[in-house]
Specification:
- This protein has about 170 residues and is an alpha+beta fold.
- The protein has a single domain, classed as HIT family, subunit A (2-Layer Sandwich).
- The chain contains 4 helices and 5 strands, in the order ααβββαββα.
- Strands 1-2-3-5-4 form a 5-stranded antiparallel beta sheet, with helices on one face.
- A hairpin with an 8-residue loop joins strand 2 and strand 3.
- Helix 3 packs across helix 4.
- The two termini are about 30 Å apart.
Amino acid sequence: MTKEWMPRERWDALVRGEGCPLCAELAVDAALTVEGYVVADLAVSRLRLSTHQSLPGYCVLICKQHVREPYELSPAKQLLFFEDMMRVGRALEQVFASVKMNFELLGNAVPHLHCHIKPRYYGDPAGGIPIWPDVYPHDLAPQQYEQRVAAIRAALAAQETTGRANAEPLS
């Protein structure tokens, strides 16, 4: 990933939603994209399991509406987006038995509201600092991704019936 800003004209177009890669991803009804596996469509967002599993369970939650910042959503949708984030965090912790959950709202590479949700584990390679998937890439076999997607879906479904995930941690 580059450390420099893209040309201003490109940035302004992306802010308007023109050529937005996340909008394009949301428009396609595919279970697998170049960036990962679709896990679920939630209240106002779509959850994707990242192809880079540098941290088991690393997902990206993408707002279905093209906005740059959470405060650009209506108050009701802000609450729903936050509830989607918390629901995913609980599910990932339940499935992967993490010790911490990092929620990263960045967007200076793609100005479309999305949250990187990264389960953290005691002893992971980045200790007390943020971890970047491209620094520690780890790709899995297709059946391993499918197993993780199924486990996350089960935990999300359990929350619908019980209010909290009851799934056992994934080994």
